[in-house]
Design goal:
It is a single chain. This protein has a domain of 185 residues: 3-Layer(aba) Sandwich (Rossmann fold), CATH 3.40.50.150. It contains eleven helices and eleven strands. The strands form two sheets. Strands 6-7-5-4-8-9-11-10 form an eight-stranded mixed β-sheet, with helices on both faces. A three-stranded antiparallel β-sheet has the order 1-2-3, with helices on one face. It is globular, with a radius of gyration of 20 Å.
Length: 359
């Protein structure tokens, strides 16, 4: 390990670590029918509205391919209100095709069959990558946390690596880091945090777990919002969650809910200067320029302090140039390397950019 970069397996500190990839049969079987009914109702409204919104807020070509190839079953279950089928998918979503595009899976596993033997080569790679990412996480968070801080909920039957008695779910190190980065920037425990493209809610879980007074708002595509609603509602049943179609996105709603999950086009309804920080990882920077303009217009109007985004270097540099040219109120503050995927993709260069609102 040198300057956060992976060198070779001999350079990695030894940890008592093992890979847990196969299905854990201890799946939550509590009745979640009412929650799934709400999720289906919100999804149906969002999917119907999505057809009429401006293309800038529609799904990217990459996500459209995933919708067509891997998400047809879950989309059908949501649209048909097939609660029994949807329940089976979501209770095991870390292993189910319904989370395709949101959770990385072993290269030698198909999304439809995760059980069975995993190759020794892949297990060795996972061990090396996990050790690298844990070292990088410790470096990025300045050693402030123990491994137990990466413990996540059992919702969705997560897989990952066992380390010091803790199951570290896949990509938990990065999600926890992002949550702590946001918490280090905000000045109030009652802050309002917006995420563009929140995945299944992994970062949001750590954010809300460690600072439960925060209001979290996620803007994403309907399929991801449905899974996020399930994950966060099951993980944190004590928090109030607002789904699309249940109430308008107003200042009153922002003040009255802990979690708000809305399709992307609702971002334009955010009240002026109502958000403390807008965050996006590999989402905002990946949009085409026309779509970025749609998002940035709403983000610039609603954000009062910080804009933080992570992605591929070229994409982030392009986004920064657009911001500098068209949204001068976002003063550029900092660029950091983002080497989380260096072992998996050594040729990829990823960065983290921070802007501060100067109004």
């Amino acid at each position: 390990m040198s300057n956060g970069q992976y060198q070779c397996e001999d350079d990695i500190q030894f940890y008592p670590l093992s890979v847990t990839l196969d299905i854990d049969r201890h799946i939550d079987e509590s009745d979640d029918t009412a929650l799934l009914e709400r999720i289906c109702a919100a999804y149906i409204k969002a999917a119907d509205r999505e057809r009429a919104v401006r293309s800038g807020y529609g799904a990217t070509p990459w996500w459209q391919k995933i919708q067509q190839r891997q998400l047809s079953a879950v989309r059908h279950a949501l649209a048909a209100r097939d609660i029994k089928r949807l329940q089976a998918m979501y209770r095991n979503f870390f292993h189910d095709p319904c989370s395709t595009g949101l959770i990385p899976r072993p290269a030698d596993k198909t999304a439809s069959h995760f059980g069975g033997a995993t190759s020794d080569m892949y297990r060795r790679f996972i061990l090396s990558e996990t050790r690298y990412r844990i070292d990088y996480w410790r470096s990025q968070t300045e050693g402030r946390f123990s491994i137990s801080a990466l413990q996540g909920p059992a919702v969705g039957n997560p897989f990952g690596a066992m380390m010091e008695g803790t199951l570290v779910p896949v990509r938990a190190e990065f999600q926890h880091y992002c949550a702590q980065r946001i918490l280090d920037l905000i000045t109030s425990h009652n802050a309002v945090v917006v995420e563009v493209g929140g995945g299944f809610g992994g970062m949001a879980y750590y954010l809300l777990r460690d600072c439960p007074k925060i209001t979290y708002i996620d803007f994403d595509v309907p399929e991801s919002l449905a899974l996020t609603a399930y994950y966060l509602s099951k993980s944190m049943p004590q928090l109030n969650v607002l789904l699309y179609g249940e109430e308008e996105l107003t200042q009153s709603a922002i003040s009255g809910y802990d979690i708000i999950l809305m399709p992307s086009w609702e971002l334009s309804k955010l009240p002026k200067s109502s958000i403390d920080i807008t965050f996006s990882s590999h989402a905002l920077s990946d949009l085409i320029s026309a779509a970025q303009a749609e998002y940035l217009h709403g983000i610039e109007r609603a954000t009062s302090n910080w804009l933080l985004y992570i992605g591929a270097e070229d994409a982030c540099e392009s986004l920064r140039a657009s911001i500098d040219e068209n949204y001068p109120s976002f003063g550029f503050m900092e660029r950091r390397p983002s080497a989380w995927n260096h072992l998996r993709a050594p040729k990829a260069i990823e960065v983290e950019f921070l802007h501060r609102v100067q109004k």
